[in-house]
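Researcher: Here's the sequence for the chain we discussed earlier.
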Amino acid sequence: MEKKSTKTCEPRTTNSTTTSFGLRKISKNNTTNTVTLPRVALENCIDGRTKKFKVELVQEKGEKFIKLSPSKGDKK
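Model: Thanks. This is the structure I predict for it:
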């Protein structure tokens, strides 16, 4: 019986940029909490037609943060 060789993959390093929008107040309205973002922040990351964003809670290396991504394949 032959043994299969396995390769060890090294972790990928990614270059990322973080832009701070300062401290933002959480507005509470009944059961909804809202955080507003500057218009410029959204205009720079969407193509003008996207109306929906994917919202994810990311937990890595002891950090927790919310990730917003323009939704692809948005049905109107």
